[in-house]
Design goal:
Elements lengths: L3 H11 L4 E5 L4 E3 H17 L7 E4 L5 H12 L3 E4 L6 H11 L1 E5 L20 E6 L9 E5 H13 L15 E4 L6 H13 L3 E4 L5 H10 L4 E4 L1 H9 L13 E5 L5 H10 L4 E8 L4 E6 L1 H4 L8 E2 L4 E5 L8 E6 L11 H7 E2 L2 E10 L5 E6 L4 E3 L2 E3 L1 H8 L5 E11 L3 E10 L7 H8 L11 E4 L14 H5 L8
Helix pairs in contact: 1-2, 2-3, 5-6, 8-9
The chain binds adenosine-5'-triphosphate and magnesium ion (MG).
């Protein structure tokens, strides 16, 4: 197809009665109904004065209305801006102003309705602006083209072995979306990919792990995709052992670093499923590298190989360790950030996107994301990758969650600090944790500072640990 609009129209013509989108405890849309209603949303937008190229912003919770707002905007030729529903008022105001939204989809208001309208976009047209997660700074609006959406769907399809797509309830592919739709994993790699393959996207409107587990059996989910943090919650949930996972063919994770210990736990928990890692960024319209099931156990710390349409390179590589900044190029890569020419020029070198991630590549081409450049700690001249220390801490006695950050130190410049959150009903003794680490990682990587929190680590909706507040906290005490 040329665009998401063409894709939707073709799918509605080919299998109008198949189920396309399900909102748990809400409505269900067939492909026929989805196409018909998206055209009417487009007509309503036109009647409200929205022209092709105008921005429409979605403030709705995840669900069928969200999907209609998203696709209806594209059918009207508008550029759709999914807004983070966890944003506070001033942050929402920033996005609406930054994108100069001509129309805002708000909760409690009926979707726009009018005479049907269809605009046929070009392949290279910008279809959406997705804001990055804001893990390392202010969210940036990445322009996303129809071509990028479609190439990502194709990459997802190619990353899925044929027998994974076997009919489960008569329809090929049923994915459960428990991550936000305003980020690319939920939207591009789950919702749009389900539509691309003629499957069904089942949407959990708000995170409720008990409901998520029940939905797996009730909705006969074939593809479970979510972030490492939610796998952690699922596996620890008292209902997990009695959850019906007989329909699950695939259990994939990504979007944030995962501790190898959790990969092994997922493998054990889903013995019949293919387990896989996916690496990507908002700027890559989702999937850029994937690690297939055969590799997941042995190379649990890798994100695998680049998808066929993405080229990779390493930049400013350290000759001793082979670690450099990961660069990417290809049709899924954003042409730039909305309204941010300086951020755009900083983000590219010679047409390659700078990921901000440090990576290395092994002899067989597997990619390892070692850390964010901004999270790497320079301890008196030695580089310490926070992710490596966090992975080691994942198995430490009493530790439920751990984050590692650089702490200013008068002698070393920067020293290693660990923030720990205990398992329920347990206490964490930093001395025991340090004893556990010794021998597992090199001496210079062992933390000098420890903080034990009485609440879980701060995370964004994608489950990523927000390290800035941890780094800036007063808890590190006098140094
Ligand atoms: P911001 O750019 O606003 O600081 P962000 O980088 O977290 O936020 P996203 O585009 O949602 O915003 O996330 C992309 C980043 O997530 C990648 O650059 C990488 O650091 C991390 N990431 C994604 N998938 C994986 C994975 N499978 N393993 C390790 N890290 C991952
Ligand atoms: Mg980023």
């Amino acid at each position: 197809p040329v665009s998401m609009v063409h894709l939707l129209r073709d799918a509605a013509a080919a299998h109008p009665d198949d189920e396309a989108v399900v909102e748990l405890d809400g409505g269900r849309l067939t492909y026929g109904r989805l196409w018909e209603r998206a055209q009417r949303v487009a007509g309503g937008l036109r009647a409200a004065g929205v022209q092709a190229g105008d921005r429409t912003a979605i403030l709705l919770p995840a669900g069928t209305d969200w999907t209609l707002a998203f696709l209806g905007s594209m059918v009207a030729g508008a550029i759709v801006v999914p807004v983070n529903t966890r944003f506070a008022e001033p942050e929402v105001a920033y996005v609406l102003e930054d994108s100069a939204a001509a129309y805002v989809f708000r909760p409690g208001e009926p979707l726009p309705d009018g005479d049907p309208v269809v605009v046929e976009p070009e392949h290279a047209d910008v279809a959406a602006i997705f804001y990055t997660s804001g893990t390392t700074g202010q969210p940036k609006g990445a322009l996303t083209t129809h071509e990028a959406f479609l190439s990502n769907c194709e990459s997802m399809l190619r990353a899925t072995p044929d027998d994974d797509r076997d009919a489960v309830t008569g329809q090929a592919y049923r994915t459960l979306i428990s991550v936000p739709l305003f980020h690319v994993t939920g939207c591009n790699s789950q919702l749009l990919t389900a539509l691309y393959v003629g499957g069904t996207a089942v949407i959990l409107p708000a995170l409720d792990v008990g409901r998520l587990l029940r939905a797996v059996g009730e909705e006969r989910i074939s593809a479970l995709t979510t972030v490492p943090a939610i796998y952690g919650l699922m596996l620890a949930h008292p209902d997990f052992p009695s959850t019906d996972i007989s329909s699950v063919r695939r259990a994939s994770y990504g979007g944030a670093p995962i501790a190898p210990a959790l990969v092994h736990a997922i493998k054990r928990a889903f013995p019949e499923a293919r387990v896989s890692n996916g690496f990507g960024m908002t700027e890559t319209a989702a999937l850029a590298c994937g690690l297939p099931d055969e590799e997941a156990a042995e190379h649990a710390d890798s994100v695998g190989w680049p998808v066929p349409v993405v080229d990779l390179a390493l930049f400013m590589t350290d000759p001793e360790t082979g670690v450099g900044e990961l660069l990417m190029r290809g049709p899924t890569i954003t042409p730039g950030y909305w309204n941010k020419p300086e951020k755009t020029s900083e983000a590219f070198v010679d047409g390659w996107l700078r990921s901000g991630d440090l990576a290395r590549v092994d002899d067989e081409g597997r990619v390892y994301i070692v850390d964010r450049a901004k999270d790497m700690i320079n301890r008196g001249g030695e580089n310490v990758y926070s992710v490596e220390v966090e992975n080691a801490l994942a198995g430490a006695p009493g530790v439920a969650e751990a984050a590692v950050v650089g702490v200013a130190n008068p002698v070393l410049g920067e020293a290693v600090g660990m923030v720990l959150y205990p398992r329920p009903g347990q206490t964490v003794d930093p001395q025991n944790v340090l004893a556990y680490l010794r021998g597992r990682i090199a001496d210079y990587k062992i933390p000098q500072y420890a903080v034990v929190r009485d609440e879980p680590l701060p995370r964004n909706p994608g489950g990523k640990i927000l390290k800035r507040p941890l780094r800036d906290s007063d808890d590190w005490g006098d140094r």
